[in-house]
Amino acid sequence: MEKIDLSTWERALHYQIFRNYLNPQYCVTFELDITHFLEVIKQQDYSFTFSFVFAVSKCANQIKEFRYRFVDGQPVLFDRINTAFTYLKKDTKLFKVVNVEMRETLEEYEKLASEKEQAQKEYFTAPLGNDVFQFSAFPWVAYTHISHTDSGNKDNATPLFDWGKYEQKDGKIMLPFSVQVHHSFVDGVHIGILAEALQHYLDTL
What we know:
Structural class: alpha+beta
Helix content: 25-40%
């Protein structure tokens, strides 16, 4: 974890402009083509949730703007971000939040995520740490927009990723995908870089 020196940080002005906004977070929704990705993970008998969480986290970890957080009110840059995702318990239809450390390969992550999810009986094990990407699936509706609850904590800079119900369009399988970020750290250009990198990963897995 690297502490940021505001006197030399190229992003200092942009950071300070959005730092004290009433609502410094914003959300963008767009579609991803998962045709190839879905075919590959079905062949491997992998969970869509685990595989997609890995794909997004792998790409987001490569973009430093998605690894900035606040620690004690000051900006820091983490070396690596892990994952936390919601997962529905079939018997109660209530979700639990599962924390899984990031791994180098999809195979390793899928195995670890499966083990963690099956072993966890509690809905919530602890408050989420700073060093996670947070995921929440919404697979019942092919939405075009999504909003989130707001705790009022302006220092919550954890990116939140959502996805909806995928559907076939013009011979392709399309997935609605949302990215919520803190504007002190992430601009639209960085979401664009993520979108391009993620689509490339989904196309070439």
